[in-house]
Design a protein that fits this description.
about 260 residues, 7 strands, three-stranded mixed beta sheet, mainly alpha, two-stranded antiparallel ribbon
Length: about 260
Amino acid sequence: MILPVVKKTRAYLIAFFILGLMTSTILPAAAGSMVDHGIYAELLSKHVKNGVVNYAGFKADENRLDQYLKILEQVDPERLPRDEQFAFFINAYNAWTIKLILTGYPGVKSIKDLGSLLQSPWKKEMVRIHGNIFTLDHIEHDILRPRFKDPRVHFAINCAAKSCPPLLSEPYRGQVLDAQLTRATADFLNQRANSRLEGDQLWVSSIFKWFAEDFNKDVVGFYLKYAQGDLKQKLEAGRDRIEVKYMDYDWSLNGA
């Protein structure tokens, strides 16, 4: 009569042990980011300074970048909470853009050099996620823009060009995503290289022309949310008279 009790006790102990292992695996992820961006954080901190990308450094550490891309490949983003998913796709876009540049580095002077007459670099099938292979265009135009409907994403994703909003020296993370997006947007809009008000003419990035619908075709209204200091005061004072103009886009590589 004792043996069945012992067997049951052992079974309970084994089940409890397995549950403990599962819990120890899950809880750290739930407590912090649900995707391990540690390698990417290390690489960004090491090779990105004030938006200038050290592609030679990334090339030397390409194996580490590949390890991170492999981590992203194994994630099922559909199982992530919304902000984690949003951050995941931003990081995937930016990390795979770096990888794309490395395929031609050091000979590449612009991301456009990696395309051809028949195919732009953004239409190359190379982004591996959960058994699928996507293009950078797909990530941007079929996932990030329509799914999350947040125009600040245009100041988070990086196209490896000097006129593109700069790459952060840290990964985007779900827990602080809203603050990161706001900071990236405000930093870009308040730099004179990206925005200047000349009389009643507001000169802005061509991003606002290419994606006008994402900004509700109200560039000045969007600026007023994030402009600071003298720029904000002048925009408020002359809002009804301001004419929006678009700067030329510099596609040369954003590297040192």
